[in-house]
Hints:
The strands form 2 sheets. The protein has a two-stranded antiparallel sheet. A two-stranded antiparallel ribbon has the order 3-4. The chain is mostly beta strands. Strand 3 and strand 4 form a beta hairpin. Helices cover 5% and strands 36% of the residues. The protein has one domain. The chain is extended.
Amino acid sequence: MKEAAANYIVVRKKIRGRIYEAGRIFIPTKLSSDSSFPFKGRRVRVLIRISGDKLVISKLRGAPNPRSGGGGRRGKAGRRRRC
Length: 83
């Protein structure tokens, strides 16, 4: 399986009174479970770039670029406590 139709949606989240929008692309299981799917494991850092009218997604190699929107999530010790 080399291709499948998928959905792109924009979700809104309200965090501390501010509304944020984030795009999501859902990859069908029949595509992601194919032996030729390039990403293995439950969590893989990827680089997404726009090339003309295409989205190109590849594995992120090396140290993350601070300008790429990375930075990751905080671990349990780094989370703020809500009162």
